[in-house]
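Dear colleague,

As promised, here are the two records you asked about, laid out in our usual form so they can be pasted straight into your sheet.

NAME FIELD: protein one
SEQUENCE, THEN STRUCTURE:
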Amino acid sequence: MKTLQKLVASDPETLQMMSGKPYEPKFMDLLLLQCAPHFYTEEQKAQINHFKQNSSVESRSETKNTAEKRKIEEISEEESDTSMNKKPRQEINYSSPDLPTKFKNRFPELNNDDFKFLLSKKLYSSDVDPNKNRLSMPENEIACDFLTEAEVTKLCERTESNNFVGVEVTVLDPCLREFTILLKRWKMRSTYTYNLSARWKHIVSANKFEQDQELEIWTCRANNKLYFLLENV
């Protein structure tokens, strides 16, 4: 405080005349105004207050921009890479199993070519864990493309809380019972994975699926719906 008093010991108008420059408020003036307001003219006080308001706005703007930048940087790679979604995938070259007759009978209006075999899936503990409530299908194990461009775009959309919206699909279990759940796409280590989530645990419970059990997973489209077809192996 003693140092500040020495700094403002001279009359401010005299200091301004000595400097030969128009008065321009500085950050130190904000402090000096609080402890020694009598050393400033009313015009200078108004300039300092205006300077204070502008500095506050700029500070809030900078803080907001920094927070938004950090939020963008924190978005994980799996949730923002739309370009990878739109790249054509290479189909896996192996012979698919025969389409179960029950699926043909369930969709008599479809031809064999309308059904796509996706993968043979061995269930892990995480696939039957009701707390996780999802079936994972690694993208590099899926035999073919099965989504439309609109669905690919939908998989990248987020809610206001920054969660994935997902694509609504219908699952037919081995008993041909229908379940409406969500398909989502996540990044898992070095690859992407599709997940049947939201009420998947009900399918596990109804079929008493267990760890190490194997499923064949097919897909088709009927009645403007995307179906996933599950068959026990």
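NAME FIELD: protein two
SEQUENCE, THEN STRUCTURE:
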Amino acid sequence: MKSVAFLYIGGPHHVFHAAPAAAALAKAARDVQVVNLVSGERSAALIERVYAAYDAPPPDIRPFDTPWWGGLAARISGRASARKLPALLRHRRELAGFDALVTAECSSSILRHFGLYDAKMVLIPHGAGDRAISIEKRMALFDKVIVAGPKNAERMVDCGVVRREDLAEVGYLKLDLMRQLRGQAPKLFDNDRPTIFYNPHFKRELSSLMQAEAIVAAFRAQDRFNLVLAPHIRAFEDATPAERMQWEALAEDGKVIVDLGSDRLLDMSYAIGADIYLGDVSSQVYEFLADPRPCVFVNAHGVRWEGDPNYAFWTLGDVCTPEMVLQAVTVAADRHASYLQQQRAAVAASFGESDGAADRAASQIRQLIGDPEMP
């Protein structure tokens, strides 16, 4: 029997990008053993949710724990991500026993340098953004890179990072999953005011997070809009309890939600339920634009972004300084028509056709491992 391991070491936000393929593979190929290797109970719970959405058999979930020195490295550095390399080294022999490894991030490519040659390695990049980090040299170490749409596929080939024959465009797995999970947008507030989804990135040198307190204060002082402050889940992964409490105190019942870590940051609740997107460099803007709506982008660092492909999404709405956010949001709906056609084209290039994406990704994996039962 062939065996495939899905490896989740980058955090729970990677689960919805890769687990749909795991569920589809487990459902369609009973002759293939599908194992989910996870760091933490939260990821395990999310995997179970994904499998249930696809009516797949119960998932095989196994712990992918970190050695003690990995935990020590994380505490000393103050970075949760410092656990990844120690965990990979600890489990490298176990991983070598699978026919294929599937991951949503590039860190596991280091296994190639530690003797992992027989197992096929598959990358399903999380997100479909425009920043250069989505195209990196480590992708060349994977046997197959499964992307959502033609935008990133063409960019990878043009940059010489991945060969065309090693790429597969299948659609956006997370969007395919969301259509399985719900049929309508969640109600975020019990009022009729338009809701803003404010989504700062976690990298402070690129993000508007340093100005977020002032931006939230501006929304607290008005009565026209609701606001959801929902930064990338990694923005506060290393924060102390006191720091979290300070930010959460910015919330206001009936007007402002501050969410630093719930599952709503992962399952597109805010992207689906909001009326206007406010962000900086997060690729989640494309998830919001799966249903095209007004967008505003905060240029918090005076970036000269025009013509820069890393900021292509900033052409999909008005760009403003942090001080002008409220004014820009106020006119966003009126200005949306001028961006609508470009938004639709950008989403098509980023996501391709997402319905059935999980099944297509599973098929690519089966082909790669030479599944004898492949139809």
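A couple of things worth noting about protein two: The mean pLDDT is 89. Residues 337-351 form the longest helix (15 residues).

Best,
R.
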